[in-house]
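Thread title: Can someone regenerate the structure for this chain?

I was given the following input by a collaborator and told the matching structure tokens would be attached. They weren't. Posting the sequence so someone can regenerate them.
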Amino acid sequence: MAIKELIAVNILVPVCLILWAGSSALSKVAIGGKAFDSVTPGRYLFSLAVPIFVAVEGLRKRSLDLSGALAGVTVGFILTFTNYSFFTSLFVFFVTSSKATKFRAEKKKTIEHEFIEGGQRNWIQVLCNSVVAAQLSLFYLLDSGPQEQPIDFNISFTSSWLGMGVLGAFACANGDTWASELATVLTEKKPVLITTGETVPRGTNGGVTLIGLFISAAGGAAIGLGYYLSELVLIDARVLLSAPPQWRMVMVGAIAGFFGSLLDSFLGAKFQFSGVHCETGAVVEEPGPKVKHICGRQVLDNHAINLLSCLFTAILTPSIAQAII
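Best answer:
Regenerated them for you:
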């Protein structure tokens, strides 16, 4: 075992034992009339070790900078400890969106004025795409404790609502990332502005294409599929048989990804400045003397748009799930 791995083990194990001891103490105390169940040290160990491993790999592959890795570990611990299916959703989003960001990077350099080599995400980008899911996860933890359970609005409405909210937040983030990173380089057709239908340059905030909308639904479906497969592995088969068909959450994810991408585009067209530089022809997000306005006002930046889109999609997705599942 390498020295770094040995140090990590010697830190993680005592921390997990301390957390487990605290959890065991809380299991004896009733809060709000509901007692906490004792949590095994293994759950703490997994919830700490796996997010750290993923963050280190993200640093090594330049998908995250240091601040993004630290934020990812914090969010990852909350989601993983609460529900392993939440971690699966986060993992699918991180891996697939990172791959999408690096896809045909050379071509993106000629289109995107602020293109960053490797697509490294900082703490702001990590939180804007995952803080909504993390907050819903904490509510889930307080309501049901750390556990995996099927989506069943008739038996466990609150936990099902919160679980589908988490799915919706990640479906929105993943669908929008797939659409913006893949559609730009997969088609030569210029997008149309979602608010007017006018043709606009590629990279314009609020521009949509048919293939982009399809890809956004696929990105959301990938989150739903990850959530569903983790349920098949983690939940007893007899419990799943007595619950509504869980595979339908793949459809829920697809709808959430599609809607989230549309909402992101609409907000971007209205509240995010887009202009074309007269000399370079590149699409820019700040006005200037040599910049021709395309659409939007300089009210919100891309991070705020992502956060609002994830929030509204997370609120809407449980209602979609309730109608489908």
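The chain is about 65% helix and 5% strand.
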